[in-house]
Batch of 4 targets.
Target 1
Amino acid sequence: MQKTIIAAKSDNHVIGNQQQLPWHMPADLAFFSEQIQNGYLLTGRNSYGTPEGMGVFANRQDVILVTRQKDYAPKGIHVAHSIPEAFELAEKLGVQQLNILGGAEIYAQTMHLTDELIITEIHMTCEGDAFFPAIDPALWKEVKREDHPADAENPYAYSFVWYTRI
């Protein structure tokens, strides 16, 4: 099973602030939607419950939700209570591609277990309370980068960056 982390982060590693994205970048939303078309989605309960999460996960049957809350069971969603349990469930379901969508705690727990990172770097610094882990160049090799300037719809320059595990 291929495991891929997909995330957007600012230059200071912020991925969220008070359960919301600290930016509005339509190009990143389109890129993100394209990346998650194939495969199952793995997310934590907090990310699942955000306004952005509700839009991403609505009407999808291919979601594995990780929560420590034993009685939390949204209709139509597979629930696991740990990362190992989520990976085991994905194997049982025959998942070929597992897209890991966060949040911060899920990224921290899976970073050493994944095969690939697909990161949108938003070239700005911002306040936040959720952070993406550091990408260690001794463990990850950048294999592709697409740089884009800010424009009328996307207020910050940004890069789509792919990494593979060394």
Note: The two ends are 17 Å apart (CA to CA).
Target 2
Amino acid sequence: MSAVIIGIAIGLVLGLTGAGGSLFAVPLLILFLGLPVQEAMGLALAVVAASSLFGVLQRLKSNLILFTPGLLLALSGALFAPVGNWLATFLDSNTLIIGFMILTVIIAIRMWRHASAHPEEAVIVRAGQEETIEPAELLCKSGHKGKFELKPRCIASLVIGGSIVGFLSGLLGVGGGFLIVPLLMYISQMNINKAVSTSLLIITIISLSGFISYYLHSENFNWLLLGKIVSGGLIGMYLGTKTSAYIAGVRLQKIFAVTIVVFSTITLVHQY
């Protein structure tokens, strides 16, 4: 299968579901391009970073990206992504795939349950209309002008959350959108649309950090292959954002949840 087509598929998933591009990318790169596990995880981070950056550029004038919490969380994650990548160099391919499989199943179950419990949020992906949520007991609060109040509890929650996402990103080649969006909504009064938009900035920085760490540990890096996958990812992201407002929803989220588990299972069997 063409590397460009695989990139388009990854970008479409990012655009249509709002997260999970790397969960789809890693199995595709292993199964259809025959890449080693660590190389697939490194390239997945690159295409997710590029596709997410495309989404950030689309939203710079929308006021949906909250840069203060986003950059704090992203920079924390960027520091820990190399740690996860360093640890991955000591693990064999089977161990990494098993870890990836476990994470995929956990995310798929959460995605299925969340789509059923909150169907109105299933249509808020890379494109969607802003809606509000009721504030709960918050770790991060906004002042009267809507700016984040960076108090100790808020800073600590963003740093810890970012560190965990960054570590998993470097270790398993995942962008982390599946953790970032609920984290932002849990610790603040951020609505789903702003959380998804802000997650694009965070995913871009963390994924880029993870990819750079992978690149520095790699030999004979294939830039041509990366270019093909990334170009396809940008095309897919564009198509996904243009069509998500029409087809995104509960059914699509559930189909994606099942699909990533199926592909991860096939990849695990393929490794053995």
Note: The radius of gyration is 17 Å.
Target 3
Amino acid sequence: MMQTVAAALACAREVGVPRLDAQLLMARVLGRDRAWLIAHGEDPLTAEEQASFEATLDRRAAGEPLAYLTGERDFRGLALRVDGRVLVPRPETEGLVDWALERLDAITDIAHPDVVDLGTGSGAIALAIAVTCPHASVIATDASPDALDVAAANALRLGVPLRLCRGSWWSALDGSARFHLAVSNPPYIAGDDAHLAALGHEPRMALTPGTDGLSALFEIIEGAGAHLLDGAWLLVEHGHDQAQDVRGRLSARGFVEVETRRDLAGIERCSGGRWRGR
């Protein structure tokens, strides 16, 4: 039976999909915006439109991220294309970018500071830094060729020059590469964390390194000295209960001015320090 726009949106509540999500999905199917949907609630859907909407509705009800279904996610004002090849950028990661930009603003004696984003995924962090600080030279790495394809496509759409390197953390880089700033949002969820079940649609390698969740963070910290200039900063995102361990490893490795930043929910989310190698 043919449905109107309003009737189809009402059905979304019956399968547990929030109204805003349903509107965004409908807007995607129809190629319209939410304002149009409100003004044209009594317009009938074609059979094809109804089938397409119901299919995406089922996928959302099954837990697939909204960003995968719409194909887009906003991150610090950037419309990034995302799909199942990359992690959906989270709002809390914007705090890591804010901190990185603070550190770049403090560099006044270098015309083009060198920045690396380790494990870039969709390119969210690297692109946000490059757009806001266009005088910086930004490199992004990832072990996944699929993720690098997504990041490259986002850089192309945004018109942002971004050098991409494939490999695991520092190993993706030339041995002589040195940076004024390094940032990373690595996988940090423990392998036995119950929350992983609800994140099954996202690439597991971008969510957890297994074990206690600290191995990728520690690998990045341990390898940093070979690629950071004296006085450079390393900033990493981590789990809610990992700040103390990360600070301890940073200090033990030779970083100074080690600190942790909280996200908008008050959770210890990012830690970092300035490199004074031993």
Note: The chain is about 35% helix and 20% strand.
Target 4
Amino acid sequence: MRKILNILLITVLVLSCKGPKSGPLVKETFDNNAQNNEVAAKAHQSQSVVAKADIRLEPCADCITIGRLLADKKSFSGKTIKVKGVVTKVNEEIMDRNWIHVQDGTEAEGNYDLTVTSDQKVTVGETVTFEGKIALDKDFGYGYFYNVLMEEGKIIR
């Protein structure tokens, strides 16, 4: 008789369970994760602005200046171009790539910074020439949005 009662009790408990995503902690945990994601996105947006550096570079013969790229971005969309600039910020190993900010002293409508994704490593202050494909309006979520992005940048020596 005791075995039967235990089986009935276990059956009632199992049938009353609403699944792994039920219970009072689930909504609270979900809400906390959503708030943390919003905070992270706002923090990124406030940090994503790289200060304008005092740079004066002569572009290489077959390079596009950052100012020209930003002013006429649609004409470069999907094309592989070269850009010469000084590295002003590096975020390594995010989404299996390095995120490199470069400036060359030119600008368009107050924009002066180009982000390049690459598997190569660079250091802040280094002058580099990158060749890569231009992508427009890339949204990675959580506030990581790029109007202009050079993808798969390779350093040209």
Note: The CA atoms of residues 62 and 82 lie 7 Å apart.
